[in-house]
Specification:
about 150 residues, alpha+beta, CBS-domain, elongated
Length: about 150
């Protein structure tokens, strides 16, 4: 299974923010849309990721205030990325290694979507459930043994 399979199911709604926008505005978007991340784009290119983790770290560093902080100061400016062709097992390993909950999907320099650790886990569980159903159907249709073999 590849990342493209997750994007097909998930759809391609993307929420982005620019690095020089106020962090307060970005967090408001995240709250209104009930999303855990925003892709930070500048001049049509990916320059960072803003997740609730970066927001919380920034608020703590600012003594509990967002203040006039810009997205640029809080964002992860070296986010993990993958391509639509990346295998899900590789994505899982990458996300676990970096403790990343969100990963932009890039095709060359074009942003194709964002997948979350939840999306990856759901895809794996759905795939295992499908495989389980197929195996059970196969076992149920197993040919009956003839009585001659048991005598």
């Amino acid at each position: 299974m590849k990342v493209i399979d997750i994007l097909r199911v998930k759809g391609n709604t993307l929420y982005t923010v620019q690095p020089d926008e106020p962090l307060a505005k970005a967090t408001q978007i995240m709250a209104e849309k009930d999303i855990g991340s925003l892709v930070v784009m500048e001049h049509g290119e990916l320059v960072g990721m803003l997740t609730f983790r970066e927001v919380i770290l920034c608020i703590v560093a600012n003594g509990g205030e967002i203040g006039r902080t810009l997205v640029r100061k809080a964002m992860d400016d070296h986010p993990l990325t993958c391509t639509p062709e990346t295998e899900i097992d590789e994505v899982r390993r990458m996300m676990l290694d970096r403790h990343a909950r969100y990963m932009p999907v890039m095709n060359q320099k074009m942003l194709m979507g964002v997948i979350s650790f939840y999306d990856v886990a759901k895809a794996v569980v759905d795939s295992q459930n499908f495989e389980n159903k197929m195996l059970k159907a196969y076992i149920r249709d197993w040919p009956a043994e003839s009585g001659a073999d048991h005598e």
